[in-house]
Amino acid sequence: MSQADFVVVANRLPVDRTPDGEGWRRSPGGLVTALEPVMRRAEGAWVGWAGQPDVSLEPFDFDGTHLVPVELSAADVQHYYEGFSNDTIWPLYHDVIAEPTYKRAWWEAYVRVNRRFAEAAAAAASEKATVWVQDYQLQLVPKLLRELRPDLTIGYFHHIPFPAYGLYSQLPWRKQVLEGLLGADVIGFQRVADAGNFARAVRRQLRYETKASGISVPDGQGGTRVALAKAFPISIDADSYIELAQRPDIQQRAKEIREGLGNPRKILLGVDRLDYTKGIRHRLKAWGELLEDGRATVEDATLVQVASPSRERVDAYVQLRDEIEMTVGRINGDYDSTTHTAIRYLHQSYPREEMVALFLAADVMLVTALRDGMNLVAKEYVASRIDNRGVLVLSEFAGAADEMGSALLINPHDIDGLKDTIVRALEMPAAEQGRRMRALRTRVRDHDVEDWSREFLDALSAFHDRASSATAAAEVDANLDEPEDASS
Ligand code: G6P
């Protein structure tokens, strides 16, 4: 069996079945998009689930990547994926916006499935290979993999928030999860605050020492090794968005979208997975009230809300969809005219070309997440605005806010503040739009996804090489940008 020097382990493979069920196509998700350029370069292997229960597949090659499918039974999907990952960890780590459910049978499935992923990764990796584990579905894999293959260099990146200790400590398996993550040489987070929350949980729960970004972890042989826990904010392949935005057919499509909406003076846009973390209800409430107050009319502005289907068998998502669709129906019923609509609601997923056309058509982009690891849509929007126009309204609770201070930052819980900001965005003079958009675009272009993966992987190799030395954390830290003190 062929083994790779670079292996990504993620819950999902980077491909989906084509609609005819015969072939495969690259899936559109943020993680896949983020890692696509890295994989292309490294000719690595990717271990993950193909997205359907009870399907057994042999490893296969797709677009230069060796794909290693991990099989999940219907019960695994229910307990490990829908249960522990998306009904325990997801709500807990997003500040309990929805109530997390703690079920022992789900935890047992999570342990069992994490072991399966670790075994598949151990088999796919060559001697001294680098393995990069992705996200909250696989928090136990770093430790399990280190036990199976001590020769490997192991990185882990956490794409979602890591909560404050007071919330994290609810988790009945809080020690095991921390120990699982600490199996990695480098544990990457989106925000400095996430890395700080993690270090604090480690100090409180495990009593391990932390110094700057380094954590002293017992090596099982009486000594210690140092793991690095640090922020590496993820980004997008900015150039690919710029190229799409320059295409005449996509610019034409943007015009058609405007015309299709009756050429309102302004278009507002929301693009989200249909998830309770995204603040879609808050956005609809603010928009509905602006129409009610007469501060906006449907001839003036239309809100286009793309809400792509997600996790449709988890109760909280079923309920959310009902609530949103009822709200959209009410607002449209109250304010639509025969020619114009208040909200064009699209419960669908679109290819990247159509997304860029929407970004080009949108005068105002609304990102009102109540909590979000990063929010790549905010970055995709600004990368696509090659005309340096358009306004990004961005929640301060999205990781992207740390880097995108030139957006109009909002607290989505403050509906009056959100309404005022939407009005301000709709009325913003072109010169101010240009000044803000240029600053945002510079940031996204200067720190794209290749920088993200290179910085993470450089830190990983540098750190692993020196990890035997007790001073490794401090040394590596000193060589990284924006050193941060995680010990407070
Ligand atoms: C978030 C997570 C990813 C996940 C994606 C889609 O971005 O960080 O790990 O893949 O949502 O969710 P799904 O449950 O469909 O994989």
What this model shows, in words?
The protein contains 17 helices and 18 strands. With 488 residues, it is of the alpha/beta class. It is globular. A hairpin with a 6-residue loop joins strand 2 and strand 3. The relative contact order is 0.11. The strands form 3 sheets. It has a 10-stranded mixed beta sheet, sandwiched between helices. It has a 6-stranded parallel beta sheet with strand order 15-14-13-16-17-18, with helices on both faces. The protein folds into 2 domains: 4-234 and 451-467, Glycogen Phosphorylase B (Rossmann fold), CATH 3.40.50; 238-446, Glycogen Phosphorylase B (Rossmann fold), CATH 3.40.50.2000. The protein has helices at residues 30-42, 74-93, 104-124, 141-148, 165-168, 174-181, 192-206, 238-246, 248-260, 280-293, 315-335, 352-361, 376-384, 415-427, 430-446, 449-466, 472-479; strands at 4-12, 15-17, 24-26, 45-49, 60-62, 65-69, 125-134, 153-157, 186-189, 210-211, 214-218, 224-231, 266-273, 301-308, 343-346, 364-367, 391-395, 408-410. Helix 1 crosses helix 16, helix 9 crosses helix 12 and helix 10 (280-293) crosses helix 14. The longest helix has 21 residues, at 104-124. 6-O-phosphono-alpha-D-glucopyranose binds at residues 12, 29-31, 135, 159-160, 310-311.
What's the arrangement of secondary structure elements?
Blueprint: E1 4-12, E2 15-17, E3 24-26, H1 30-42, E4 45-49, E5 60-62, E6 65-69, H2 74-93, H3 104-124, E7 125-134, H4 141-148, E8 153-157, H5 165-168, H6 174-181, E9 186-189, H7 192-206, E10 210-211, E11 214-218, E12 224-231, H8 238-246, H9 248-260, E13 266-273, H10 280-293, E14 301-308, H11 315-335, E15 343-346, H12 352-361, E16 364-367, H13 376-384, E17 391-395, E18 408-410, H14 415-427, H15 430-446, H16 449-466, H17 472-479
Parallel strand pairs: 1-4, 1-7, 4-6, 7-8, 8-9, 9-12, 13-14, 13-16, 14-15, 16-17, 17-18
Antiparallel strand pairs: 2-3, 5-6, 10-11, 11-12
Helix pairs in contact: 1-16, 2-3, 3-4, 6-7, 8-13, 9-12, 10-11, 10-14
Bound molecules: 6-O-phosphono-alpha-D-glucopyranose.
